Amino acid sequence: MIRVTVWNEFKHEQTHEQVRNVYPDGIHRVIADGLIEQEPAFAVRTATLPEPEHGLTEDVLNETDVLIWWGHMAHDDVNDDIVNRVHERVLNGMGLIVLHSGHYSKIFKKLMGTGCGLKWREAHEKERIWTVDPSHPIAQGVPEYFELKPEEMYGEHFDIPAPDELIFVSWFEGGEVFRSGCTFRRGQGKIFYFRPGHETYPTYYHPIIRRVIANGVKWAAPSGAGVPFRGNHQPLEPIG
Amino acid sequence: MIRVTVWNEFKHEQTHEQVRNVYPDGIHRVIADGLIEQEPAFAVRTATLPEPEHGLTEDVLNETDVLIWWGHMAHDDVNDDIVNRVHERVLNGMGLIVLHSGHYSKIFKKLMGTGCGLKWREAHEKERIWTVDPSHPIAQGVPEYFELKPEEMYGEHFDIPAPDELIFVSWFEGGEVFRSGCTFRRGQGKIFYFRPGHETYPTYYHPIIRRVIANGVKWAAPSGAGVPFRGNHQPLEPIG
Amino acid sequence: MIRVTVWNEFKHEQTHEQVRNVYPDGIHRVIADGLIEQEPAFAVRTATLPEPEHGLTEDVLNETDVLIWWGHMAHDDVNDDIVNRVHERVLNGMGLIVLHSGHYSKIFKKLMGTGCGLKWREAHEKERIWTVDPSHPIAQGVPEYFELKPEEMYGEHFDIPAPDELIFVSWFEGGEVFRSGCTFRRGQGKIFYFRPGHETYPTYYHPIIRRVIANGVKWAAPSGAGVPFRGNHQPLEPIG
Amino acid sequence: MIRVTVWNEFKHEQTHEQVRNVYPDGIHRVIADGLIEQEPAFAVRTATLPEPEHGLTEDVLNETDVLIWWGHMAHDDVNDDIVNRVHERVLNGMGLIVLHSGHYSKIFKKLMGTGCGLKWREAHEKERIWTVDPSHPIAQGVPEYFELKPEEMYGEHFDIPAPDELIFVSWFEGGEVFRSGCTFRRGQGKIFYFRPGHETYPTYYHPIIRRVIANGVKWAAPSGAGVPFRGNHQPLEPIG
């Protein structure tokens, strides 16, 4: 059983009626529903910025196999201690799925080491997402391409390290491309960045989007060695 | 249920008493036993060079999710048509695990596009295998390092494309290193090369070796999209 | 001084008036002119399919640092011995730049190990090429994006191994994306695949296209170690 | 002309006689001498921790194409503002070469996003460095392998992201292996980590070590596009 925590800053839903209309109980609730719909065996909980410790206590993180992150307007309000705690957990094996505007979150920038900037435009345009690594488990059950209309545009250059694996590339009506599905490994943790999900659109109700996120959870769940690999330390004696 | 076919050229066992002593029913039999021991749910069969079509008929390959390949002295005796058939199956999604001296097999060279040469020495020396990608599913349950003594030495430069993922690196008593656990994706197929397994040593009885190969099977089993991605063909009309 | 050989099958120019109008002396001639324009110090020669040994004799290849390949309708007419000779030279350090429809050439497929298929459409549409790896030497002097209109469309899934480096991604008016600038290392040789260049369009007169190909030549020129690394062989004695 | 700044914390040389005996004017001075010996056209300067702003003022960094970093016992004494300034410069295209114990520097950890831990042992043992990517420009003129005796041991698991390119792998007498030559791209900057160089050994006088560092400088020098790629900003209007 994979234990998932869906984190959302949960601000747009309070302040923008347009967002509340699409996600009345919050984006996190719809993402969580999608996971349960796709994989009933997942144990899913949610956490949000306004909760104590942003809902990401030591206990919660210790019981989380994969953390999903949605943030946008309140990146700066996330406490650095919590960011460091999440960072440490990822290096020790917790999976992390960063969605959409989470590209600019503290935790993603800290794990990438780069600026993580990109281009964007809100013009209600069509996005066509192409699968470029069809053998990847995250692409399981995903067609050659699928469309979202409308979505926000994100364009290159996306200032990330070269991803370990590039799974999806987006085409936008207005003339841009974007590396929309990227994996990274950091420490013992696996990270999946997935682009779609502007807060004013019903993207997280889309069955293929739900499929991709559920696939991402299964891929990112810890599968590594049982022994600790971390730290700077003196080793065994030389071989005799 | 994952369907595995273990292929062995099955020649050393006929002609070298030393090999027959270690693998009386053939290397393939011991590899197959190890898979069943590790994962009773695997459906495992074997195939060998002397069989008609080397045991790799269209039917067998169509019912194979992952093919394991052990060959050494008879690479040239493998029929090119069978090599092409296996190649085609890999590009269409069948997993392939190439063991030890299989680095010089026709199928591995055809998939890599390089010479696949390396250094070697039979000196009954110690091999220490280090895990350098502890988060990889193939490293699941594998310690930081483990030892084989004796083993044949394989040394760099190993003339392969840069692997998509480097999981294990070997240290040899005599002074060499080797990229011993490497993954590659070709078409919709996943390939895992794993170094150990000289025919005169009981390597395939070793529990960690068995664990790694079983992990490799699970990793390499097809997980891709359900739609065909192959071929050179015209697409849909332009978007209206 | 880098020695470049530009190879062209040189067939369309003989048989299609439309192509002859754009490239009256052959595509190879215009590519060669572009190289000299960009880098007067390059030593550039050409070779074509109808010449003896397709112009790729042992002597010519031994004096070639980087080979540029354009082929389309006559891939099957290239002699396998010449393909093997070029392959061997690449593994020994010669650079190779494969242009446009060369994706389906024998030499590219042999080096990649995959089917190398893709989607295509001739609809006189606009191509916008985005730079996704701005720090790469092949992107030197190349803007964030540039446009070709018209060009032929090439679309994903492009059946290649994951490139070592992804430098350019194309956007097409009709709704597709394509990994248009990819590098691969094989043996001691460097390979650059660059998408644009349909035979009926004046693509190889375009200053940025010329810049990219010249950058590619500089990147692909041999720079490796002076000692031989090839072959399967017994090594030194163990360390005393 | 490539402008290089060699940075050294310059502490061991003040406090440890053994280090002062090997590097009487500081490690930075010997690294700088090696660069000038190998490439007289380099413009080389040095900077050290005790200088104002650690010698890394805005002016110095703006006039630096490649920064070389050696630090060990005083990582924590490096001011965070200077670390951020160097980070920003790397993302904007300055090359960075991190040597030996610099793996634990603030700047390297910030760029990697991981813990950067490793194993180590001071046992005066032999290190044998193998070239695993002979076609890489950093391996130019470097033999198949070369030896340092004695050196400090560094062992896996080295907690870094999978390097973009793996060029050298070390073998140690006591039984460990290490990914000793690794490249990374971050933003528009190129980073090369190179393992050897314990302060009590004359490693930076070794001609092959000097060759590798000089090659690294040439490789890491900015070569990207002339236009700015950074930041999070809105793009052009959609294509008409």
Automatic annotation (TrEMBL), chains A, B, C, D:
Residues 3-220 form the ThuA-like domain. It comes from the Bacteria. Signal peptide: none annotated. This is ThuA domain-containing protein. It comes from Cohnella yongneupensis.
